[in-house]
Structures are given as C-alpha cells and as structure tokens.
Amino acid sequence: MADCIFCKIASGEIPNVKIVYEDEATMAFLDLNPQAPVHALVIPRRHIDRLTAAEDGDTELLGKLQLTAAKTAKLLKVEGAFRLVTNNGKGAGQSVDHLHYHLLGGRKMLWPPG
Ligand code: 5GP
Ligand code: ZN
What pLDDT, in 10s, does the model give residues 34-63? Predict the structure, then answer.
C-alpha cells in the first residue's frame, strides 16, 4: 500500500528502524514511541488493515504472527512476562492502518488496561 508507513518499513524504505526479527512473511521492530521498557511491533509484511480485515486465507499468516511475537519476546528477554495486544479500529486507539501487535514488557502490566 503506497502511503502505509508499515508497508514502507516492511520493504526497507525507512531508515533507522530497529528490527528485532524478520522472516519472509512477518517482522518485529521497536516502537518509535515506547510505552514500556520493551515495546516492539509485530506485523505481517503484507498489508492487512486490521485484524477484522483478515480473511480465512490469512490463517497461516496469523499463526506465523503469533510465533513471531513469541520469538521476539525471547529475543528481547521478556518471554516470562509480556503483553501482546492489537488496537482494532480508531476507537480502540489504532493510529496506523496496517495490522500490528504491540509486544510490551519490562515493567509491571496493569489490568484492566486503560
Ligand atoms: P497504534 O496506535 O496504531 O495501535 O500503534 C501504532 C504504533 O506505531 C505507535 O505505538 C507508534 O509509536 C508506532 N509508530 C508509528 N510510526 C512509526 C514509525 O515510523 N516507526 C516505528 N518504529 N514506530 C512507529
Ligand atoms: Zn501497510
């Protein structure tokens, strides 16, 4: 997608992105504006607007995203305690319309989240 910042990150067009993990279908990189000592974003390389825009044909990709999140948690050494969350839609706080999971860790997580 032409104007999508995460598509540009996925294709390597944006410099200074701190990539934690990548494979042919997914990638994880550090958030520009971290909300916890560890804050990574886990995305599919292919553009999907949000989780509710995913289709049956995306089943394998969504599974890979979960595994990428787990691998990223291990690489960032927060595998014992982290939160994985997606903001689906503007009302939930989604500001970038390319499916992404926030992986947050390194501090005590509050519940319920704000
Ligand atoms: P959302 O608000 O859509 O759930 O999350 C979008 C996230 O993307 C925010 O946490 C924001 O800090 C992050 N973000 C936006 N633009 C960039 C960017 O160009 N690079 C990186 N690394 N993170 C970004
Ligand atoms: Zn995109």
Answer: 999 999 999 999 999 999 999 999 999 999
- Put simply, whether the predicted model's pTM sits higher than 0.85 gets the answer yes
| Residue 100 a catalytic site member | yes
* From 6, 13, 29, 41, mutation site for ligand 1 pocket: most ligand atoms within 8 A of C-beta: 41
110 falls within a domain: no
CA distances from 52 to 7, 100, 110 (A): 18, 12, 26
**Which residues neighbour 18 within 8 Å (Cβ) at sequence distance 6 or greater?**
29, 30
Q: For the chain, how many structural domains are there in total?
A: 1
Residue 33 belongs to domain spanning: 5-105
Best CA proximity match to 93, nearest among 70, 69, 113 = 113
Per cent of the chain over pLDDT 70 is: 100
For ligand 1, mutation pick of 95, 99, 102 (most atoms within 8 Å of CB): 95
